[in-house]
Write a structure and sequence with these properties.
By secondary structure, the protein is an alpha/beta fold. It has helices spanning 21-31, 44-53, 58-69, 72-75, 78-84, 93-109, 119-129, 162-169, 197-202, 226-246, 271-281, 283-289, 292-308; strands spanning 8-12, 38-42, 142-148, 154-157, 179-181, 184-188, 207-211, 251-253.
């Protein structure tokens, strides 16, 4: 019989490729017997959280990611092409020059198209990871956070198509075309809630474990062009909103993702391990935040496992 006491919610933040570290977080929580009553995700957090909530194991999600990154579909995708322009690894002078030009090309393209990525490319990625089902049918209660570009309001999906909700949550402005749904024009949830702690509380969580996958702040900031000003202004706004929301979390897990760009797939291989390490480092805080009965149950479960060995 499932305990109906205090609920533990997991708030998975956005961060593009850096969100793969959420898989490592889920690995450790499962291994430690820390049950999660509901999951709320923003952007990459919605993708990984939605896949997990639908019934896929962390191992299955990880295997899907590896298969996708090795697939002919990804090799030929605009997603990979754009991602290469942000990767600093093993670049010859020719590749650096090419990537400089392509980076500017994709940026300019966004001024004349709804997005840099063709809508079909990103929809196929969502379909690959997320089954076609209603959010109300997920194994673990799930919410996806998006933003309505018309009203500026945070939109939290608790019903309807899981795929559509995750797509709306992942629609990064300029990179992925907004999702039109009724009177809404939906874009990335990170515009209003990078780490959806408030939405997790509103969904009924008494304890919130938040996972933020922001990259490290640069040691120095270069402000030379109008684009630099726009990027930096956006970063400041995002950081300010995020800091205010993080104050409402019981535990914050911070995988050390370094300066990894959100579209740099070239360095994505170690992110699951990084997520595991960060979660293990947070286990004392997680355990202390859990309701007493859960701490006792968890201790008893681990004791039984040790006796069986």
């Amino acid at each position: 019989m499932k305990w109906t006491g205090k609920k533990v919610g997991l708030a998975l933040g956005g961060g593009g490729v850096r969100g793969f570290s959420h898989i490592g977080v889920l690995n450790v929580l499962e291994a430690e017997g820390i049950d999660i009553d509901l999951i709320v995700g923003t952007s990459a957090g919605a993708l990984i959280g939605g896949a997990y909530a639908s019934g896929q194991s962390p191992r299955e999600i990880h295997a899907k990611i590896n298969a996708y990154l090795c697939s002919p579909e990804f090799e030929a995708s605009t997603l990979k092409s754009i991602g290469l322009t942000f990767s600093p690894q093993n670049k010859s002078f020719f590749n650096k020059a090419r990537n400089f030009v392509m980076n500017r090309f994709w940026f300019v393209r966004a001024f004349f198209k709804p997005s840099m990525l063709p809508s079909g490319d990103f929809q196929s990625l969502i379909n690959y990871f997320i089954p076609e089902m209603d959010i109300r049918e997920t194994r673990i209660p799930f919410r996806a956070v998006s933003t309505d570009l018309i009203t500026g309001k945070k939109i939290v999906f608790s019903e309807g198509s899981l795929r559509q909700a995750v797509l709306a949550s992942c629609s990064v402005p300029g990179a992925v075309e907004p999702v039109h749904q009724g009177e809404w024009i939906l874009a990335d949830g990170g515009i209003t809630s990078v780490v959806p702690i408030h939405a997790t509380r509103e969904a009924g969580a008494d304890v919130v474990i938040a996972v933020m996958v922001d990259r490290d702040s640069p040691a120095s900031v270069s402000i030379e062009t109008g684009k630099d000003v726009l990027y930096r202004a956006g970063e400041i706004t995002t950081n300010t909103l995020e800091a205010a929301e993080l104050e409402d979390a019981d535990v914050i897990i911070r995988p050390q993702v370094g300066d990894l760009h959100w579209m740099d797939f070239g360095r994505a291989g170690d992110l699951v391990k990084i997520g595991e390490e960060a979660t293990r480092e947070s286990l004392k805080k997680i355990n202390a935040s859990l309701p007493l009965y859960r701490r006792i149950t968890r201790f008893a479960g681990r004791f039984i496992k040790i006796r069986k060995k």
